[in-house]
Design a protein that fits this description.
The complex is a heterodimer of chains A (330) and B (329). Chain A has 330 residues and is α/β, with parallel strands linked by helices. Chain A has a domain of 202 residues: Rossmann fold (3-Layer(aba) Sandwich), CATH 3.40.50.300. Helices cover 32% and strands 23% of the residues of chain A. In chain A, helix 4 packs across helix 5. Chain A is globular. The two termini of chain A are 30 Å apart. The relative contact order of chain A is 0.14. Chain B is an alpha/beta fold and 329 residues long. Chain B folds into two domains: 236 residues, P-loop containing nucleotide triphosphate hydrolases (Rossmann fold, 3-Layer(aba) Sandwich), CATH 3.40.50.300; 66 residues, no CATH class. The longest helix of chain B is centred in the middle third of the chain and has 18 residues. Chain B is globular. Classes of the chains: A alpha/beta (330), B alpha/beta (329). At the A-B interface, helix 8, helix 9, helix 10 and helix 11 of A face helix 6, helix 7, helix 8, helix 9 and helix 10 of B. The structure holds adenosine-5'-triphosphate (2 copies) and magnesium ion (2 copies). One adenosine-5'-triphosphate binds next to strand 2 and helix 1 of chain B.
């Protein structure tokens, strides 16, 4: 079965007064049906811009999708106008997105009930009565107590965790094929984070939806994702099943990341953290060689001479973009 | 001077910090937030005590009371044996130079118009080092200590990266050779690779200078990594304290168990084996905490008597303390 969503060689640049920012520079990834995929990487590596590009939510200027294909259900979404009818019918209804700060996505002057029924009436042509019934059912599903009584409440009357639940209900309301959650739990406490992630996991199984979790938290992807993409400096440097990435990481950046996060259950006596030296690049006027090179402890001559290598299949579904010595067992 | 336990740099007893809730033009007092409510703990020299808990549970307030940025409502704060809880500003100066503080947002806590040299040198001036050359030498020494290049001394904060700014904050905290440093979410705003650099720096400095830390954070993995002992707070109270390893292997309080279970570890094999307990509901408002044990409405072990009175911290052996009626010890 072909993937539900295939992104090929996506390039999204920003024209800024300081220079051209190649925020996403040749990114390819697939999302299969009913799959939970994690996208990880440090701040500024291009995770959000990649996802926003899929939905053509890049403001232009300064942004521009300069190249690539976004194949969803057999069609290239990039051929459609960002503000056109086709993209509007896909956004929210077929591919839904949940953002880090729910207040930016919820309209503060509309009641929760109104915001949720609107999508159903527009996208699914439901009449107000059945839309309302469906919304009550959705809110109940995501764990809002007294759902019927809360329909006329405004977003500010909900706690942060509750608002994020409303966002999940809203995202799922039109039965999307893909739910993209961009740092869905960064602003909430750890027990609320656990509640929300468990909820999302339950919901995507129930709604037969694919889920993309974008995060910098390696623990979250280890717990929930089946497949993982690791991004660095606007590119994917490694991808594979969760076990490939965590048990057999091959890119020096992935290896470095895993060495610098503390793991619950280990104290400093048992494992010293090993930081990655240096800083991430600022993405302006990048050289053509591997962007991780200045920080890499395994750099070789070939890394300086050749342009950034593309992703190469190692085994199974495990890909890495690095001039390594080749697999240990050929 | 009442020296209770000479090994303790800091010892707080029955600390309470209540903030008034006021209403209307006349700021009529209509209630109070018990941000810190009967908290006691001690930290030995060269030890790190971690303080964890969810937003609003009173971690920062506890730290600010120790620094005497707040005058506590009640309780004792003994610094090297001397109670500073009611001390006036004049006498406090002497003690203040013995305490440093590092905050979450290095940017917000640094004056954007001052040069790095002025920022780091300021505490020296405040505490009476007037000789310019002495000041400069000390600032240079501090830069080296925290791994910043001396050539950066003339820069202003926005010319530093997030990690470098945090180093600047650490240099400033170390300026007067404090014995105790309150670290309030010092790495929460940083990316993981920079976070590891700062954690390592704090650990190295502790060994080199014999520092004592109160390490406040909500990231349990980080706290457990850096701390010798960990205290868990819930709505203004400490509900469990134990050795870092012991807390992970043998958590006793139902809240601690849920908190640990909520933290995912970066290893899918371990994750598949873990049982996940998802807490019901949310943390109640600190302005109206549930009666009795504050955790009882969300607790799966709670019985009606848990809402009647609140459990005290009691020792279950090896310094492992827990405040729960249902835990057998
Ligand atoms: N509107 C914009 N103008 C200029 N540059 C931008 C704009 N939006 C994003 N960028 C740049 O694109 C790069 C990628 O940003 P993106 O938001 O995708 O990062 P991210 O991986 O989501 O990071 P985070 O974890 O902090 O959310 C960054 O360097 C950012 O500065
Ligand atoms: N100056 C103040 N005046 C009134 N209330 C305050 C003040 N400082 C804190 N509080 C309240 O006291 C409680 C504890 O706050 P505190 O900042 O200590 O929590 P915290 O554990 O540090 O939380 P976080 O993890 O969000 O930093 C909160 O309910 C807070 O709103
Ligand atoms: Mg982002
Ligand atoms: Mg705080």
């Amino acid at each position: 079965m072909p993937p539900l969503l295939s992104v090929y060689n996506l390039k999204t640049y920003f024209h800024t007064y300081r220079g051209l920012v190649k925020a996403v520079d040749g990114v390819s990834f697939d999302i299969n049906e009913k799959e939970i995929v994690g996208v990880v990487g440090e701040s500024g590596c291009g995770k959000s811009v990649s996802m926003l590009s899929v939905l053509q939510l890049i403001s232009s200027p300064p942004g521009e999708i300069v190249d690539g294909k976004v194949i969803f259900e057999g069609q290239d979404l990039l051929q459609y106008q960002p503000k056109g009818e086709t993209m509007s019918s896909i956004r929210g209804a077929r591919i839904a997105m949940i953002f880090q700060e729910p207040m930016t996505s919820l309209n503060p002057v509309l009641t929760i009930g109104r915001q949720l029924t609107e999508g159903l009436e527009v996208h699914l042509s439901m009449n107000p009565q059945s839309a309302r019934e469906r919304v009550v059912e959705l809110l109940r599903l995501v764990g809002i107590p007294d759902a019927k009584g809360r329909l006329d409440a405004y977003p500010h009357q909900f706690s942060g965790g509750m608002r994020q639940r409303v966002m999940i209900a809203m995202a799922l309301s039109c039965n999307p094929r893909i739910l993209i959650a961009d740092e869905p739990t960064t602003a909430v406490d750890v027990t609320t984070q656990a509640q929300l992630l468990e909820l999302m996991q339950d919901m995507v199984v129930r709604f037969k939806t694919s889920l993309v979790i974008v995060t910098h938290n390696l623990g979250v992807v280890a717990r929930y994702a089946e497949r993982i993409y690791v991004m660095y400096s606007g590119r994917i440097v490694e991808s594979g099943l969760a076990d490939d990435i965590f048990l057999n990481p091959l890119h020096p950046y992935t290896i470095g990341l895993l060495k610098c996060v503390p793991q619950l259950g280990e104290t400093r006596k048992e494992r010293k953290l090993v930081p990655i030296q240096g800083l991430p690049p600022n993405l302006i006027n990048m050289p053509s060689s591997c962007a991780f090179l200045p920080r890499c402890d395994r750099a070789r001559d070939i890394c300086r001479q050749k342009p950034w290598p593309s992703l190469e299949l190692i085994e199974g579904q495990h890909y890495v973009a690095c001039f390594r010595d080749g697999p240990e067992t050929p | 001077m009442n020296q209770e336990n000479p090994g303790n740099v800091i010892e707080i007893k029955n600390l309470r910090m209540y903030f008034p809730i006021t209403r209307g033009l006349l700021r009529r007092r209509v209630g109070e937030i018990k941000a810190v409510d009967d908290v006691s703990f001690a930290i030995k020299k060269n030890e790190t005590l971690g303080l964890v808990g969810e937003s609003g549970c009173g971690k920062t307030t506890t730290g600010r009371c120790i620094l005497r940025l707040y005058k506590p409502t009640a309780g004792e704060i003994r610094f090297n044996g001397t109670d500073i809880s009611g001390m006036n500003e004049n006498r406090l100066r002497l003690f203040r130079s013995n305490m440093g503080a590092i905050f979450q947002d290095p940017y917000g806590s640094l004056n954007p118009r001052q040069t790095a040299r002025t920022i780091v040198g300021m505490p020296l001036i405040v505490h009476g080092m007037n000789d310019k050359r002495q000041q400069n030498n000390r600032v240079e020494e501090l830069f080296k200590l925290v791994g910043l290049d001396a050539s950066m001394m003339t820069r202003v904060p926005h010319e530093f990266s997030g990690g470098q700014r945090q180093r600047l904050g650490i240099a400033r905290a170390l300026a007067c050779q404090p014995a105790l440093i309150i670290c309030d979410e010092p790495v929460s705003a940083l990316d993981v690779s920079i976070q590891a650099q700062i954690i390592n720096l704090l650990e190295e400095l502790q060994e080199k200078l014999g520092l004592t830390y109160l390490f406040i954070a909500h990231d349990l993995s980080v706290v457990q990594h850096i701390s010798n002992r960990v205290a868990v707070m819930y709505l203004g109270r400490i509900i469990e304290i134990a050795n870092s390893r012991e807390l992970y292997e043998n958590p006793l309080h139902p809240y601690t168990k849920a908190l640990l279970s909520a933290v995912p570890v970066p290893n899918p094999v371990i994750e598949r084996k873990r049982t996940r307990t998802v807490l019901k509901g949310e943390v109640p408002s600190p302005a109206a905490p549930p009666p009795g044990c504050h955790f009882n409405p969300r607790c799966n072990l709670a019985t009606p008597d848990c809402a009647e009175s609140s459990p005290e911290l009691r020792d279950t052996g090896n310094g492992h303390q827990v405040a729960c009626f249902k835990v057998q010890a």
